Amino acid sequence: MNEHSDNPFENAMRQFEKAASKMNLDPGFLEIIKRPRRAVIVSLPIKMDNGSFKVFEGYRVLHSIVRGPGKGGIRYHQNVTLDEVKALAFWMTWKCAVVNIPFGGAKGGINCDPTKLSPGEIERLTRRYTADLVEIFGPDSDVPAPDVNTNPQVMAWVMDTFSMHKRHTETAVVTGKPIELGGSLGRKEATGRGVMFCVREALKKTGKDLKGVRIVVQGFGNVGGIGATLMAEQGAKIVGISDISGAYHNPDGIDMAKANECIIKNKTLKGFEGGKKIPAEDLLTLDCDVLVPAALENQITADNAGKIKAKIIVEGANGPTTPDADEILSKNGVMIVPDILANAGGVTVSYFEWVQNKQSYYWPENEVNEKLERIMVESFDSVWNVGLEYKVNLRVAAYILAIKRVIDVIKVRGVYA
Ligand code: GLU
Q: Residue 417: what pLDDT?
């Protein structure tokens, strides 16, 4: 019997246990790597523009530092909970291990609706959050980055607040910064670019390339918008897109330049005329070859999984597919490139940014993109080969690869007591 859950941490555990059960591991080690090392909750009192005070709740979870400093974004959203942040931190550990970069996993979030906050309120909230976590963050301990509704400007405030407390400028404490502050060229596009590489590699395995392939993308932010644009540049036909304003369908292919213009003008796709507006819930089941969920968790569920027509799903978002949906899709022969591989391009270039900050030596964009491509293609192939070896789907394969890499390090480090 399947248990239904919207709790991302419980869902993450189910994915993890499925992979771990194929590995014949010491149960003690499994206990160690399942749990977060630390979870912090902070109350953030903020003076609003109208003079009133409001208190927001913030979180930072450090899941693992076995392979290096904790790494992971900060999310601002009205649905942020501690369990969600725990799941996201947990996924970061495996994501960094899948692409074999020397980081552990962490994540942060503030429960707030940023669309209802002014830039000044967001700045004060960010600075208060950072100040409260100043002993926790650090280039060698826990390095934040952007996530849902946070951006390079927010990272600049994190970096500045941290540096003011430390009495020296510390660029490597956070990644995804503005370029003039030590950000890496190519970081903004990195997650979308990584998604594009994964779609291309998945298609290759089925004897196809991006030219003329029909793709639906859910979410038009930093991952979906940039991913869709890059895939269209490679000749793919983007037949459906969506964001908070709604979903848009055009079987002849959506003009990405028009969609991006609309975003620049209105911030959302509201009023977009390059496709027919359809109910948001119909987007995922549109006729297409590849589906890229690049919004939030729990979008593909037992309710809609059976109706999905795409034969390949590439998870731009973290946790978009519930475990029940996963089983239905697997039975239907759908190839899923899992989040911990598909959206790892962002954290990979975050790693490049951190390296450049530590060396104070900056790389040209083509070097960043080439290194990213190499890591994404090698990681895709490694996951694919583990899948063949263990006769499992790509999600289970990605976890097996990542768990093995983390456990191998625990074994040589030993458990300190
Ligand atoms: N928030 C992104 C993710 O979920 C990027 C994290 C990072 O660059 O540290 O992978």
A: 79
The CATH code of the domain at 189-342 is 3.40.50.720
Q: What's the pLDDT score for residue 6?
A: 81
Q: Is 188 in the active site?
A: no
Can you count the helices (H) and strands (E) in the chain? Answer: 13, 12
Ligand 1 lined by 347 (C-beta under 6 Å):
yes
Kindly calculate the radius of gyration of the chain based on its CA atoms and give it in whole angstroms.
20
Which of 107, 177, 188, 237 is flagged as catalytic? 107
For 113-134, how does the pLDDT look when each residue is reduced to its tens digit (9 = 90+)?
999 999 999 999 999 999 999 9
401, 414 contact by CB (below 8 A): no
Into which CATH architecture does domain 36-171 fall?
A: 3-Layer(aba) Sandwich (3.40)
Task: Verify whether ligand 1 is closer than 6 Å to residue 318 (CB atom).
Answer: yes
Distance 95 CA to ligand 1 centre (A): 9
Sign of CA dihedral 79, 85, 90, 94: positive
Instruction: Please identify which residue in the block is written with the tokens 């759908």.
Output: 334
Give dist(CA 87, CA 26) in Å, integer: 23
CA 306 to centroid of ligand 1, rounded, Å: 30
Asked if 163 and 357 count as a contact pair (C-beta separation under 8 A), the reply is: no
- Domain limits, CATH 3.40.50.720, in the chain: 189-342
